[in-house]
Structures are given as structure tokens and as C-alpha cells.
Give the backbone structure.
Amino acid sequence: MKFSNLIFANLFRKKLRLLLTVGSFAVALFLFAFLAVVRGAFNRGADIAGADRLVVINRISIIQPLPLAYRDKILRIPGVKAVTHNNWFGGVYQDEKNFFPQFVIDVENQRKVLPELKVPDDQWAAFVKDRQGAIAGAKTAARFGWKVGDRIPIKSSLFGGAGTWDFNLDGIYHSERAGGDESQFWFQWDYFEERMPQNFKGNVGWYVIKLDSPDSAVSVAKVVDDMSANSSFETKTETESAFAAGWVKQFGNIQFLIMTIGTVVFFTLLLVTGNTMAISVRERVGELAVLKAIGFTDRSVLFFVLAEALTIALVGGLLGLGLAMVAVPVLGAALNGLLPTLILSKAILSLGLGIAVLVGGISGLLPGIGAMRMRVVNALRRV
Amino acid sequence: MIRVDGTGKSNSLIQVRGLDKTYRRGGEEIQVLQRLNLDVDKGDFVGFMGPSGSGKTTLLNLLGGLDVPTHGSITVAGDEITHMSGNKLTQWRARHVGFIFQMYNLIPVLTAFQNVELPLLLTKLSKSERRKHVETALGVVGLAERMNHYPRQLSGGQEQRVAIARAIVADPTFLLCDEPTGDLDRKSADEIMELIHRLVKEFGKTVLMVTHDPVVAKRADLTLHLEKGVLVEAGELGVTAGGAA
């Protein structure tokens, strides 16, 4: 473009100022990407939850058990296709820092209810036959370098005293859904129950129901909860996505917190860059007046100012997002599985770049309009 | 032929009729130019002198389409510019006017070449055509070898030469010079005036120049004095009240 010399020459007029402004964009966009990734990690459960699944927990709290006897009752409710149950195990592998979720699963129904978590048939068959068998998510297996056939000792902190539970890794599951959780570790209900004290036998942590159709979610949930009403184990049944969203809420209003921080960051960025662009234009009023005198239209002057602001925003934005692309995997590893997979998606990158361009455009618009409206005669008098 | 009595021939290059310019300052009206007439032909070199605040620069701004008169008309090469809209006037300036300012007004972050190229960016010339034009203009002002220098690397006289090259590169209809030597020492001023004189004599350029300096004014074909908003002839170089001899 024939005006590029002029635009770039003006951009590099004050190198330190350029560096600091580009840096502001880079830092803001890095922070944006980081916050968006964390928000995504918190919300992923709700985002990818099956629309045709219900979660049944004890009305008092998820840590309170439910009777195993509910399973058959739930299965008889019209609209229920399958039901499975899970328990939280909460064991430690080698070190407490090595956190990953361990679930006791109902081997018979797990794959009927959660079909998107794929285990090769031969591995599943080996798992079913192996009382001490276990299936690990691909992410956790990769994290610890596990392979099928490995012996995995897990130290229990909740069940069976302080003893160690030994498992044979029979298989590795992958999630069919992008961003699905591949960090879980499953083992068999039968193995779990045989080591439970008598008073805990016959109890499960929660149920997951697979429905015939998402349309029956409300009616089935009502029937389940009515069934347990006024019993010692009243239930709370909700859709899987509502359950996941509720789980996230236990950490506080993450969404609000992240939105607030993000808004403050971008508003500050707008003020900083707006001020920088205003100073930059004010410094060269005379030059812009000369351009107008020799025949550059008001619109071209506006274009020059906007082009500068947008270039700064774009370069800073790309730098920040590029930095985030490098940093997010490092951060994910450092979190040791405390959050589900951190994903810097194309949507986040596009949104970030869009916001950067928007902020750049707005910050250049006001000084640009001022330059556009400036009277040449008055401006030349100031030179 | 330069005339100030409003009786010039209808095909004068620049024809000014009944030009008034009034400013409002703090509720008070200040009349800077009063019913001013002027006729300038192609190839004329006119100097304007007068005390500070007499309206010299205002007249130059009006002639260059940078300002609009309160009353009256300005016609350049048959185009009446006083009623042109802002954008049309900007395009007209790009085609017809070359500006030379006292403070040179070069863009400091552009090289001499890039400064001179600026007016050509508004044309449809290709990059190689633009290069040819710029090199020619810089050659005319004697700075072909300094084309890659930035303004800060040039002397005041050289900067003004670059500004002159920028003014002539698009071959405008006329040049407007506002105190072109006002910021220069005598030697540099003489060189600049020699250059402007050459543009008139060798290249047939029409030049209208404001100056405070009588020595500089003497280089013009005719020097007109602005007093109380009215142009008065100084009768230099054999020019009479009726025009140049």
C-alpha cells in the first residue's frame, strides 16, 4: 500500500512509547486469554454435559451417600434408559500433589450411560474380568507415563483406613468430545465394596441417569425426587449441566470475577491507548495540517490515525495471544490436574483479537476525528 | 499582467473580485480584507508585503483554498473555488496549489524523497513514475544526492529546497510561498530566492509570495502592499497602476 511508509514512519516516531503501548496490549491480551482459559476450564463440565443425562445426589450434600437400592427403582421410571452409580474415592498416588479424580464405577452400566468416554473393547473386556482392574483417562496415563499392564498403587485417605489399594491398569479411555475430561481413574464397584466397612456397604455416592429423550428430564427428575421424599435419603436430581454449573458455583462466582477483571483490564487499556493516541496526534497537528494543505482529505487523515492505532492493537494483541499459547500448556502442567484441561481455543483467540482491534479502533477514533475536523489554517498557525 | 483594480482580462489565471474577510474575535468583528481585487497571469511572480496583521497570510490562505472568504470570489484557471465543498477544495488544492511555508513543514520521520513523494501519493502514478517525478523535482532544487536524508540531517536552506521540491513535484498551477526565507540566513535566503526565480523564468511557474523582507520582495515581478485590508501597488520593476509594462 502506497501509504504504508507514512503509517510505519509515524508508528516508529517514538520507539519507547510504541514499545510500551504494544506491551500494554500484549499484557492485556495475555491476561484475557488466561482468564478465558480458566473460565472455560471451570465451565467445561457444564458445556459438554449430556443433554439427556440426570445426576442424582443426596439432598443434604454430595458427600452424603444414597442407597444402592434406589438403582432398580430409578430404572423402572418411564423415560429412563439406563442408570449407573459412582463413588468418589479421593486416594493419593505417590504424593498428594499428584491429584486426579478417582471414581468407583458400576461396570455393567458405565458405558451405557457415558458412551462418549471410549475404551477399546479388548481393554474393557480385560477390565471387567479383573476385580482389581482399573481404567485411566488418557491425560492421566500420559501424565504419569502409565501403560496398560502397569500396577498402580493408590493410597486411600477416605476408605479402608490408610491402606494402599493396588490396581492393574487394564485400559485407557479417551473422550469423544473435544475438551472432554480425560483425567479420571475408574475401578470396580465390587472391589470397592468388599473392602468397605459393614456400615457403608450398600451405599453409593451418586447416580447418573441416561434418558430416552432430553424432553423427559423434568418429569423423570420429579419422579426420582418424589420417590425419595420424606425418606432418610432424600434426593436432589438435576440435569448434568446444572449439576456441573452448581459444582463450579462452589468455588464462588467465577464467571462474574473473570468478567469483572477482564472489563477493568480492557477499560484501563482503552484509557491508556486512547491517551497515547491523543498525545501522538496532538504532537503532530502541524504535520497533519500540512498533509491536509497539500491535498490529503479529512478521511485520509482519519485513516492514518486509525491505521496506526489498529496496527499497534493488532501487533500487541498477537504478541499477547502468542505468549498465552506458549504459557497455557506450561500453566496446565503446573496446576497438576487441579483444573480440567486448559484449552486456548480458536474462539478465545479470535475473540481476543477482535477485542484488541475494537479497543485499538476506539482509542484511535476520537483523536482521529479531532484530526479530521481540525482547521488547516488554525493548525498551521500553531506550527 | 498583474492588476489590482479589478479590470484584468477575464482569462487571467487567478482572478479575485471583491474579496472580503472578516474575523470575529471576542464579539468584535475585525475586517482583514476589504473588497480586494487581483488579477495574476500565468508565469507572474507577485510579492505581498505589509505590516504584521495586515492580512497577507489570510490572503494567501484564501488563494490556496485553505480558508473561505466572507464575500467575494476567487477564480483559478476558470474554477471558482469560493463555493467548493471541503472535499472538493482539498482535491482542487492537490491539483493546483504548491505550498511553501516559512518553517518548511517537512515530515521529520520521512526522508527527503518520501517528503517530496507525498503529493504524488494522491495521484494514480505508479511507484516507478512517482520515483521519476521525485528525482526530477529533487534534481531541480539540487538535492538529488540527499534524497535519503531525513530533515534533521539537512540544513535550513536544504530543508526549504526539499519543501520547494514537494511543492513543485505534482506540477501545480501556481505556488504560494509564505515567508519562504523567513527562517534562513541571508546566503541561504538568496539561494532560495534564486531557485524560486528560476522556477518562474525557466519553468514558467506562477508564484505568489508573502514576505517581510524588501530584498526578497525585489525578486518578484511586482510587489503589492496590503494596508488596511486593501492591496496597493508598489510600482516596482516598471509596473504601473495599470499593470506590468
About this structure: The beta strands of chain B are 14-25, 28-40, 45-49, 71-76, 79-80, 97-100, 174-178, 206-210, 222-227, 230-233. Residues 236-245 of chain B have pLDDT under 50 and may be disordered. The two ends of chain B are 8 Å apart (CA to CA).
